[in-house]
Every structure is written in structure tokens, then in C-alpha cells.
Design goal:
Number of strands: 9
Number of domains: 2
Helix content: 25-40%
CATH superfamily of the largest domain: HUPs
Order of helices and strands: EHEHEHEHHHEHEHHEEE
Structural class: alpha/beta
Distance between the termini: 34 Å
Number of helices: 9
Shape: globular
Strand order of the largest sheet: 1-4-3-2-5-6
CATH topology of the largest domain: Rossmann fold
Radius of gyration: 19 Å
Length: 281
């Protein structure tokens, strides 16, 4: 495995890389969710690139940039073990040199859901992902569905800007008890981790109502999930919303592919999760 820190080194590697290239962008603190993306890329592509970069532009001043875990040695070991060809540990001064002034935005997809409380977040995400894609020039890029709004936004950006890259959505990876894997889970106390399971219970309660009872009414399904989540003390609910799987516009009745998304805080840690309804699962 080759380890680099700058975009120039990535471009040099890319010029000589033969065959298809799969790309897995991450912020590090790698867990089984990230590893599943790498394995998928390894299965489908001749070469695999993974990036590790905690992007400051997607954090607001009051968010957890300084607390975000950065276990470089462990991350490097995982990427090596999983057969990555090029590991790119990005530097802030390389991504955003003095005088950097450009921002990429996809406003129609960034306003709702997490965008309501994190209004600058998705511009930071879109900007860094576009830079990553330009430097790596992959044939395919792999994203987990846990950050569903992020995935939809990036897919739209790639389509709108005519990038010849396939954006591949990958299933959410969960702990045995259903908790969605996240690098932020390390900040949960033992009790907080148990409380966090309420998010998955709420989502599955709504899904059961849809699958077993045929309930397609958004208000009813959202209320089912909300009641289940709020039955657990210590969960600060931010939103529960049922949206169209492509436009992220709230739906009143499920008629096509939809996603029920939730965000909440437990132990001061912001957690997100979602579940698909319809064919988009």
C-alpha cells in the first residue's frame, strides 16, 4: 500500500494506475461500515483508493471538529489489511491553501433534514468531495447510506456537473443490536449507547407498520417512530421525517421510493439513521 498526503502525489499515482479505480472517501476513525465500502470497491475495481481527511469546512464553529477521533496509525493498519492500493491522508493546507475562496453548493437538497440545523455543512461536504473526485478521478466512488442526504446530494452534484463517475450507494452496517455504526459512537457512554438504540427501534416500528399493516400515511408513520424514540429518556430528538428518496422532498403518502430519516442527540453526540420504504432499499 502506498501512503500519500497531497493531491499532487495522488495525481502522480493516478497517471500510472491501470484498470478501473474505486474510491472510498472517509474522515477516518474507521469501523466495519467503512471496511464494507472498501471490500465492495475491492470486489468491483482493479485498484482501490481510500482517503482519510477530517474536513473542517463541514463543521460549524460550535460543532465537534476538535473532538472528532483521528487514530491515524489504526486507520492505516486497517486500510493496509483490507487491500487498499493508495491511502491518502489529506492535509488541510493542501486542500485549502491560503486564498482558497470557492464553495460548491447544492441548495435544493441541502436545506431540509440535517441542513436545517447545519446550514453550512453540505456546502463543505460538496466542496471537499468535488476536490477529492477531481484528484482521484475514480471510475466508481462508494458511499454509505447512513448519511443518506449526503449520498443524494453528491449523486446530484456528480450528475449535474457531468462527472464520469458512478456513485455507488452501500447498505448501512449495524451492530448486532441494530445501532448504526458511526465514528462518533465512541463518545457514547454505556448508558447512552443503550439509549441510542431508540432510533433504530423507532425506524423499525414505522417500517413494521408499513410492511405488515399497509400504512402509507407519512404522518402516521412519523408519529409511530417518534413515539417509540421519545419513550426512551435522554434522547434529544432533532427530527423524524419521511422524504422522497431522490428529491428529499417530504411526502404525505408513500407512493414510490421513500426514506424515513431521524437525527437526535444522546450524551451530546449527534446521531443520524434512516430506513428505506419501497424499492429503494
Amino acid at each position: 500500500m502506498i501512503v500519500v498526503e497531497t493531491g499532487t502525489e495522488v495525481r502522480e499515482w493516478r497517471r500510472s494506475a491501470q484498470g478501473t479505480v474505486g474510491f472510498v472517501p472517509t474522515m477516518g476513525a474507521l469501523h466495519e461500515g467503512h471496511r464494507s465500502l472498501v471490500r465492495r470497491a475491492r470486489e468491483e475495481c482493479d485498484r482501490v483508493v481510500a482517503s482519510v481527511f477530517v474536513n473542517p469546512k463541514q463543521f460549524a464553529p460550535n460543532e465537534d471538529l476538535d473532538r472528532y477521533p483521528r487514530p491515524r496509525e489504526a486507520d492505516e493498519s486497517i486500510l493496509r489489511e483490507d487491500g487498499v492500493d493508495l491511502a491518502w491522508f489529506g492535509r488541510t493546507d493542501d486542500f485549502y491553501p491560503q486564498g482558497f475562496a470557492t464553495e460548491v453548493a447544492v441548495p435544493l437538497l441541502a436545506r431540509g433534514l440535517c441542513g436545517r440545523t447545519r446550514p453550512t455543512h453540505f456546502a463543505g461536504v460538496a466542496t471537499v468531495v468535488l476536490k477529492l473526485l477531481h484528484r482521484v478521478e475514480p471510475n466508481r466512488a462508494y458511499f454509505g447510506r447512513k448519511d443518506f442526504q449526503q449520498f443524494v446530494l453528491i449523486r446530484r452534484m456528480v450528475e449535474d456537473l457531468d462527472l464520469d463517475i458512478e456513485i455507488v450507494p452501500c447498505p448501512i452496517v449495524r451492530e448486532r443490536d441494530g445501532l448504526a455504526m458511526s465514528s462518533r459512537n465512541v463518545h457514547l457512554s454505556e448508558r447512552g449507547r443503550q439509549r441510542a438504540l431508540a432510533l433504530w427501534r423507532g425506524l423499525t416500528a414505522a417500517k413494521h407498520r408499513f410492511d405488515e399493516e399497509g400504512d402509507r400515511d407519512a404522518t402516521s408513520l412519523v408519529l409511530t417512530a417518534t413515539r417509540e424514540i421519545l419513550a426512551e429518556t435522554g434522547v434529544e430528538l432533532e427530527y423524524v421525517e419521511l422524504v422522497d428518496a431522490r428529491s428529499l422532498v417530504p411526502v404525505e403518502v408513500i407512493e414510490g421510493d421513500a426514506v424515513l430519516a431521524v437525527a437526535a442527540r444522546v450524551d451530546g453526540v449527534r446521531l443520524i439513521d434512516n430506513i428505506a420504504f419501497g424499492a429503494d432499499r
